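#structure-requests
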Amino acid sequence: MLEIEQKFEVQSFQELEKKLALKKVMLAKEEHEVDHYLNAPDRDFAKTGEAFRIRRIGDSNFLTFKGPKLDSKVKMREEIEVPIPDGEAGFQDHLKVFIALGYKFVAKVSKRRRTYSLNMEGFSIALSLDEVETLGLHVEVEIVAEEKDSARAIAVVQKLSEELELNHVQPKSYIRLVLEKMNG
């Protein structure tokens, strides 16, 4: 499956939430996500455009690998996410395994995420309003789709973004922005 998304910087969520209310789009979930990014011992993910993380959402834990970005008008890449045991022990045990295998901790990205779900032109869309620690407010418009449907999914992401008047595209990932901020 491909993750097809576009991220936008915003000053406030207020106008966007008004537009969503007019469209009768309801809040699906509100979560605190903490992503711990790791770099592989055999290659530099910053150079290959890949990403590997352990994500904590409340008590739940997930391993996520994101493949290199594919050439596109929006951010598009393969994403593989698998659940791992819940709780602090599940998180720490998996982190220890990867560190023992030579992976290096890179940085942490922490955010409060409010996700709205809607359907448009046959796609399920996740519209996330993110308050990212040290980075401010962002909105992500995301569809997960089969490769054969990617062109249509890109068009839908762009169409919804235009309808919601999301204008300030941020092409960089949260981890890239956090690392840039850390390095001055």
